[in-house]
Amino acid sequence: MKTRFLVLIFLIVCSSNIFAQHKEPLVTDRPDATESAVTAGDGTLQIETGFIFEQFESISSNYTETNFHIATTLFRYGIGNDFELRLHGKIQTRKIESFNKSKVNYGLNNVSIGMKYHFYESSEGETKGAVLASFILPVGSSEFSSSSVEPAVLVALSEDLSELFSISTNFGGIYLNDDNEFVYLYSLALGIGITEKLEDLLNSLAVLKLPTFRNIFLMEDLLI
Length: 224
Known about the structure:
By secondary structure, this protein is mostly beta strands. It has one domain. 5% of the residues lie in helices and 59% in strands. It is globular, with a radius of gyration of 18 Å.
C-alpha cells in the first residue's frame, strides 16, 4: 500500500503595487501546484514563497520518502496586462528510509525560468485562460538535478463559480531528457474567498487554495 499527502504551510506575497496603493485583486500562484490564469499586472513585481512538506510511504516494500521544500520562491514580473516573466527556485531536503536504513540529501533544486501569457477572459471576467512555458535549468545539487535543460508547457483555466468560490485547473506536460519521455501533468484547485477585512489588510482579495490533485511528483518542479 502506498500513501501520499501534501501539506501546504504558508504563503507570503509581496507586490510593488501594494505599496503604491494599487487596488487590483492580488492573485497568487503559490504555494499549491495549480497555477492561476491571471498575470501579475503591468510593472508589478510579485514575490511568493512558502514551505511544502510531502511524504510517500509504501508499507509493502518498507519504504518511506520525506521531502521538505524550503523557501519555494516564485518571482513574477508583469509586462503589460497579459504577459509576465517568471523565475522559480527552492531548497530541498529528502530523507529516504528503508529496512532500518536512512539517507538524507540536502541542496538546491533546479531553477526554472519562463513566462505566462493571459490569452482569454470572458466579457464579465468570470472565465480566464493562460498558457505557461518554462525551461528547467539543471543548476541544482546532483541529488535533485537533471543532466540537461527540460522544457515544459502548461494551460491554466479558471472559472468564478460565485463571489465566494472559484475553481482552477491545469494541464500540460514536461519533457524529461534523461528518460527521453514526455510526461503529462494535471491539477485541480478550489479557491475560497476569506473575509473582507483580510482583503483590506492585503489590499487585495485573499484566496485560500486547497491542496490539489496531481499525477506525479514533478509538478512542483514544473510549475513556475
